């Protein structure tokens, strides 16, 4: 039986390959190092990938807020520089009125619209 195992070991090229290359101390050390750096280290590939995703989300949020700020700034400048715009905005949003003027607010029943 022992002789059969010895013959298999001698004749098998895969066992020789594993013995010489895969179980080499340098290959095992390098493999352990790579596994440690990819999965377990505090600056692992997975953590860095997650942080890059957060950075991308925050950059998208920043761009959104910048465009909203620019849009609101244009509206504010238009509102402050034009008297008719101020009056229109006040009438539409705060229901302000001129003397001797009446305002009618129409309320639509949303339940009747949904049924149709």
Automatic annotation (TrEMBL):
Pfam assignment, any one: DivIC
Keywords: Membrane, Transmembrane, Transmembrane helix
InterPro entries linked: FtsL/DivIC
Transmembrane segments: 21-40
Protein name (record): Septum formation initiator family protein
Annotated organism of origin: Epilithonimonas hispanica
